[in-house]
Queue: 2 jobs
Job 1
Amino acid sequence: MGYAATQVIPDETRGRSPRARFPQYADSFGWLAFPPSRTLPFKKTRGRTLLIHVFLPPRWKASDRRPAIVYLHGGSWVVGTPSQFFPQAFHFAQLGMVTACPEYRLWGRDRATPFAGVRDSRSAIRWLRENAANLGVDPTRVIVAGGSAGGHLAACASVIPEEQAPNEAEARDCAPPAAMILYNPVLDLRSQAWKATFTRELFGPVSRVIWSAYDPVARQLSPHSYLRPGLPPALIIHGEDDRVVPHIQSRRFTEDSSAAGNDCQLISYPHSGHAFHNYGFHPTNRPFHECLRHVEDFLGERGLLAEEPCPMLSVDESA
């Protein structure tokens, strides 16, 4: 059922260059290519104030009750910026949703472990709900999405019970999202291969400390550990040739979650590696647009798209 992307990006432009599809934003990506409507502080941490970038749809009013998506960027919990998902956030805002891309604490900038990322992700979801009346958001239809490490954080925010959250105080009033959209997500950290990567490559000088306590940490930070009935609907999109996050993680998660009675769908892309879904990853952006369609269909079938599609973006056919 999804409100067709032809109302945003016409079919005849699929496979064309970014300049053809978005001539008014042709010179760059991220901030300039898909500018957010608002950038606001949402959380003050010990080291810095975290910002959230909000995209508002055409004909938006604060009194609306629109579905919303929170996008969490990837980067191995070490690097990365919210602008990774600005193209997707811009697209779904044009379909009538409110979308948001928050910062979260990173090892490279903040010397923060993924536990902090989980807390910050929950804080972003809670902030959007608490400010729903000012942002035109239906707090019962807040979706969380993320890629790679961001997919891991999105899954953690969705499946870890409040009483088992890394910081119970920060988990208060953080009900699970209405659905989760996960791109090549990290779903299980319990293998020995992940143990080596997680400790040596990600955390260098403190790796010995983390190594000695790795097994309980891995269980606590593995979404797969929390599978049970009653979880939010999940769409997982994963490349079968992913050499960063093995595809088998998503397959096993989908199988076990479905066996528990949950609504969990996996879309596998053959001959595709890590992060293939990102805007600009492929010369024609075909995988990017296909993934948008999959997400539209998934959300539309579950009543999580805006009720009224917005007008088509202007496309300069001569570009």
Note: The chain has twelve helices and eight strands.
Job 2
Amino acid sequence: MKVMMQAECSDWDHWKKAYDAHAPARVGFQEDIFVGHEAADPNKVILIVEIPSMEAMQEFMQRPENAKAIAESGVNAESIKVTPLATRLPFPLMSSSYLSFVYLLNDIRTAWTNLLEQAITY
């Protein structure tokens, strides 16, 4: 299942180094899809990850070695928010066919705009 995790940290650079260093512990458990932060505040971390289940994630985070890594990374544990994401979207957002469709619509809009501008000038 995909989840979005949000948390506040004391320092993005320190958190990112700690997160990357702890990657071997997440192998086989968590697949990172997006690792980043809010544009306006780099200390507000955002992760989108694939995990087996919410229960497995809670158990993983509560293991002493993982809880220690989280604490040492500078994350404010009280700020951690986990949001399960929908598993299916009505269409793949970034598929090549979707992007082709978007480009086609843009081309049609441009052509109509050009036609209208020509009609106005006559």
Note: The first strand starts at residue 2 and ends at 8.
